[in-house]
Amino acid sequence: MTTLKNEVSSRRTFAIISHPDAGKTTLTEQLLLFGGAIRSAGTVKGKKTGKYATSDWMEIEKQRGISVTSSVMQFDYDNKRVNILDTPGHQDFSEDTYRTLMAVDSAVMIIDAAKGIEAQTLKLFKVCKMRGIPIFTFVNKLDRQGREPLEIMEELEEVLGIESYAMNWPIGMGKEFLGIYDRHNRRIEQFRVEDQERFLPLNEDGELEGEYAIKQSGLYDQALEDIMLLDEAGNQFTEERLASGDITPVFFGSALTNFGVQTFLETYLQFAPSPQPRQSDAGAIDPENEEFSGFVFKIQANMNPAHRDRIAFLRICSGKFERGMTVQLARTGKTIKLSSSTSFLADDRNTVDQAVSGDIIGIYDTGNYQIGDTITESKKSFQFEKLPQFTPELFMRVTAKNVMKQKHFHKGINQLVQEGAIQLYKTLRTEDVILGAVGQLQFEVFEHRMKNEYNVDVMMENIGSKIARWVENEGDIKDSMSSSRSMLVKDRHDRLVFLFENDFAMRWFSDKHPGIKLFSLL
Ligand code: GDP
Description:
25% of the residues lie in helices and 26% in strands. By secondary structure, it is an alpha+beta fold.
C-alpha cells in the first residue's frame, strides 16, 4: 500500500536556472525523454518548433511564441516522481521566475562551458542561495571547446561564493572530447561509444585496467592528474553540506548529444531532497502531515476576454489533494470548494488524484487568490511564510489615455498589483503612478490586461532601469534629497524608496548623506 510518507518521499521538485542559450530547453527535453513524458525532442517550447506546449494558453504567448509564465512538467523515473518547474529566460524574465524558486526543493544550474557564469544565472542563483536550497550544477556543451574545467570550478567559488565538488570530470573537450571520469560511480563514460564499452569500470586506485584506446591519449593522464589534485586539495562533499546549500555538486556533459545527462539525472535523484517542512505562523508544517495545505506562488491570467478566469499555481506542502475537497483561504477565512475544474497543468495525463506534498496543482480562479496565499484543509487555519518582494529593476510611468477612465485605471492597477503581476510606486506630492518590474514582459502583460480586463488604454513612459533602495531611517529623509538622478517615491506600503539612476548616482548620494541607511529587497 502506498502511504503518504512513501508518496512524499518519492517527490523531487526542482527548477533549472540558467542564462538564455546555456541549454535549459535542450536539457529539459532530454530529461523528459528519459522520463517518457515526451516522445521527441523539440516539443518543450513553441519558440523553436512552431508548436505550442500545452501550457500556452495566453494570447500573448501565442503572439510571441513563448511561455509567459513558468509551467510545470512532470515525469516518473527510478521510482521517483519528478516535477520540473520552468523558469523562463530571455525577455520573459519576470518576478514569476523568482517566485517559482520559492516553490522548489532544489535547483539545477546550467553553465555554458565556454561562457562561464552569466548575468541571469547569477541573479537566479542568489535567490536560491537566499533560500538555502541545494543547487546542482551541470556544465554544458563539452562537445565544444570551452574553458578549462578547473577554471570553471574556480569561477563558481569566486563569483557565486559556493564551494564546488566535481562529481565527474571531462576527459578532453570539443573535438577532442573523449568522455567523463565519473568519480561518484567510479567509472569512465565514453563519448560517442554506444556498445558495452560505453562504461568502463575503474579499479581501486581509480584507474582503468587493461588496454583501452582512451588511455593512449594524453588527455586521460591529464584527467587523472586533475582528479588527484581534486582528491587532495578539493572540497569535501557531504550530503549535509549539499542540503544546506554550502556546496554544489558539479557534473560535466553535453545536453545536445545527450551525454552525461542520464548519469546526472540518476545522481541528482539520489541526492536531491524530497519535500521539506515549510515554515508557517503555526510552526513548521510537515509534508507528511495528512491534512492538505499549500501556497499560491503564481497566478496566470487568461488573456482571452471570453475567459476571464485565471489559474493559480499551488505548491502542495502537506497532505494529499483530492478533487472537490473543501479548503480554507487563510487570508480571508473564506471556504472554497476545489471543484472538478482543478487539474494539473502542462500535463493532460490527469494524474491529479495522486497529487501530494511537493506536487504543483493549478486551480481555476475567479479572483479569489493572491500571490502568497495559503490554503488549508485544517479547520485551524495558518499562513505559510510570506513570499519575498523582489527589488524591481525596470520602471515605467503610467497614465490612463482617457482621463474619464481614472476609476477603472486605479481599480485595474490595484488588482494587478495585489495579484503580484507588477509593483506599484508613487511619487510623493503628485502621486504619479510608477510601475516597477523585474522583467520587461511584466509591462507588456500589464498593458494587455488593463485593456482586456479593465477596458483601459494606458500610456507607458519608460523611465528605464533604476537601482531601487529602501530607507532604514525614514525620519531623516528630506524632500530636497530627491532629484532626477535619485528620485524619491513611496511603495504600496508607503515605505520610502529612492530610485537611483545608476551605481554612480547611488554612491554619490551615500557620500553626501552618510547618515541615510539604504537597503535593497531581494
Ligand atoms: P536555453 O535558451 O537555455 O533554453 O538554451 P537551448 O536549450 O535552447 O540551447 C541554446 C543553443 O545551444 C541551441 O542552439 C542548442 O542546440 C545549443 N546547445 C544546447 N546544448 C548544447 C550542447 O551540449 N552542445 C552544443 N554544441 N550545443 C548545445
